[in-house]
Amino acid sequence: MSLDEDLEEAAAAGVGLPAGLGLRRARAWLSRAVEPGTIDFWRYVEDVGPVEAVRRLRSGRAPERIRSLVGARAEQDATLADLTRAERCGARLVVPEDDEWPALPLHALTLAVSAEPREPANQSDRTKAPVPPLALWVRGPARLDELVDRSVAIVGSRASTAYGEHVAAELGHQLGERAWTVVSGGAFGIDAAAHRGALAAGAPTLAVLACGVDRPYPAAHGALFHRIAETGLLVSEWPPGCAPLRHRFLVRNRLIAALTRGTVVVEAAARSGAQATARRAQDLGRQVLVVPGPVTSAMSVGCHELLRDENLQAVLVTSAAQVVQAVGRIGDDLAPPVVGPTSLRDGLGDLAARVLDACPVRAGASPERLAAIAGCDVLEVLRVLPVLELADLVEWTGTGWRVAPPSGRKGGPGAAA
Fold this sequence. Notes:
This protein is an alpha/beta fold. It has a domain at about 350-410: Arc Repressor Mutant, subunit A (Orthogonal Bundle), CATH 1.10.10.10. It is built from 18 helices and 11 strands. It has helices at about 5-15, 20-35, 40-50, 50-60, 65-70, 80-90, 105-115, 145, 160-175, 190-200, 220-230, 245-260, 275-285, 300-310, 320-325, 350-360, 365-375, 380-390; strands at about 90-95, 135-140, 150-155, 180-185, 205-210, 235, 260-265, 285-290, 315, 395, 400-405. The strands form 2 sheets. The protein has a 9-stranded mixed beta sheet with strand order 1-2-6-5-4-3-7-8-9, sandwiched between helices. Helix 3 (about 40-50) packs across helix 4 (about 50-60). Residues about 410-415 have low confidence and may be disordered.
């Protein structure tokens, strides 16, 4: 059947039914007709429905403003070719009418776009507008809604340092071990390190692409995308075969921010897409998390600026446990407090610590000498010394007491009081 015939059949069937071929073809057509992020076009589709929107656009009955957004694409139809091409690479079209649609995370975009003005001249630029997607092309075996339910975005510079890649990989691995999905953009640098860290933990990960899910970009990440698609998902608003045009990377950043509970910025230059993603996350009510870097590194300037921005309220994090505490359930995902290395001296009382400090390192000292240095009675020194000796902190030399060599200490913290 032709597209128009399928649309007519879908229109006759009405709404409230599972997404049939006509509705799916309508969504597929819309995903190619207009670039994502266009506020007025999304509003028009919401007002009249996807099937009716396509019928009016193809027949020239849509408002002039909407027809101008589609242009010459109104007469084209590549829906069956797109759906077939997706099927051949193991992909599918997920639409808002499907059970798999991540309605709850994407609702933040719906709320945000409702605040946009009606006048096009006053609206946000398309690359920054918080517009929900009309459909998503998804490649991989996992369910989209389940994979993003417990997810965290990790973003950063393409020109990353060894420090940044190490941190991103560690975060990805640790989050994967905690059954959290790592979401990123599949780019060089921090993105790739985060994806690989999650894969190394045997966890699924999700890459949001700025091109078709059948077209690996960068091409050097073909093997990485194949591994992601084996257990996780490749996601895109653009149909199979679409090229990774520059403006599309800016548009897709809002999806990375919206699909996740928080965005972690590992490395970012003074001007970077990672900073833009963080600010999208903040606009959508998501938590912004930042990993600090060396103050001498140009790749961490953006991170430090995010932390300095009082309006952003970014949280400094250094581990996956701290990330999960910030985005997880209150009371259930608390990070353990950071504890420094323990010492045998930690459990000593004041008197014992003073006597220990009074002991020389080499030649032994008498209890009377120790009492004079520690500022206490000789009897108190004689009471404390056996306890310190049991903890292997002091030893008798035959002529006096001294600090025991480190190799001879076998006691644990708190052994002496």
